[in-house]
Every structure is written in structure tokens, then in C-alpha cells.
Amino acid sequence: MYGTDRDGVRRVFVDALRKAEEGRPLEPMERLVAEVLALHPEYHTLLRGGESAVEREYPPEHGRSNPFLHMGLHIGLREQVAVDRPAGVAALYRRICLHTGDVHAAEHLMAECLAHALWEAQRAGTTPDDARYLDCLRAIADQPPARRP
């Protein structure tokens, strides 16, 4: 997003929320962040904390999810879909969105596959396995649509 500096990336979220709430113009990446932030009002109070939000730790053993990781997965998915990389991800995104009837819910399902692919790659010290990632997404896309009330 903006380099690999954790605090710098987190400040993008803090700044994008502040600018969006103030009605100020947003850069293209800030617009994307603001779109994802709009889906997650539960994180707004945290982000309004500025530097305390940036510096906070989210160790898995505390049982809390990392909001920056969560929103970053949404952004990563949207970037993948925009360029259809890995090839086929855009079509799978559309299928999963149709199945769920809800883009946000579809992204949450897909984010599980993306997070797992990234975790496996990090653990193995390799790049993500695109074929396994796409297989995970296909498994979701091939499930029968959930019944909606």
C-alpha cells in the first residue's frame, strides 16, 4: 500500500478516516481505504485515536483480530480483482458475490483464503501459491448459494 513500514501503513487508515470525515479530497488509495472503512464503522473510534491506534499491538493470544490486517485483506482483494491477478480471481469474486448477495460478506469469505495463502507463504518463506489460493476460492464459489429470507 505505502511501503512495508507497519506504522506508516496504519497511518494511511487513520488519515483516510480523518480526511473522509472532514470531507477533504482523497488520493486514489485513500478513497479505496475510505470505502473499506465505510464497511467497518466498528473501527472508527479506534482510528480516531491517532497514534495510539497506530502503535497498538494485536497479538493472536489476546483473542482480538487486528483491524488493520482485516481491512488490509479487503483492500488486497479489491486490488487483485481490479487487475485480475492471479488470473481468474475477478471472475471468482463475481461468482462469490452473486452467491452471497453481499459484497462485504463475499470479501470476508475470500479474505479467509487470502489470509491462509499469505500465512502459508510466510511460514514457508515463499511467494503465495496462486493455484492453491484459487482452489480455495473455487471451493467457495462452487458451494450452493445460501438461502436468503
Q: How many beta-strand elements? A: 0
- Classify the beta-strand content into a percent band: under 5%
Low-confidence stretches: none
Q: Multimeric state of these chains?
A: single chain
User: N-to-C terminal Cα separation, in Å?
Assistant: 38 Å
Q: What is the element string, with H for helices and E for strands?
A: HHHHHHHH
Q: Which descriptor suits the 3D outline?
A: globular
The total count of helices amounts to 8
Structural class: mainly alpha
Largest sheet: none
Radius of gyration using CA atoms only:
16 Å
Overall number of structural domains: 2
Helix content: 55-70%
Mean pLDDT figure: 92
Describe this structure in words.
68% of the residues lie in helices and 0% in strands. It has 149 residues and is an all-alpha fold. The chain folds into two domains: 1-62, no CATH class; 84-149, no CATH class. The longest helix is centred in the C-terminal third of the chain and has 22 residues, at 103-124. The chain is globular and about 40 Å long.
